[in-house]
Amino acid sequence: MPYWTCGSGYIELAISRPDARSASHSGPCDDDVAELSRKPYIKRQLEACDAEKLVKTLSEYGAWDAEELADHDQNLQRILWLACGDIADGQV
Predict the structure, then answer these.
(1) Is the C-alpha dihedral spanning 20, 21, 25, 29 positive or negative?
(2) Per-residue model confidence as pLDDT tens digits over 57-75
(3) d(CA 55, CA 10)
């Protein structure tokens, strides 16, 4: 199973390629990412993510402002989407 980690190494996720592809495709992915986040093996990994480290990691992308990054649940969705994109694109 592909193992994704952010550049700082703070966040690590193991996601199967089929699952990653299910949440990384053209068009809106929000519903698919949300569905994937409920799978037990993904949910356990997301629950282990430290909120401060998650914000620090996501802020490095420059795509979300401080107000947006205050929402931990959305941050979990964001990091899962990013990881899925890298895995689906074969970067991992």
Answers:
(1) negative
(2) 999 999 999 999 999 999 9
(3) 10
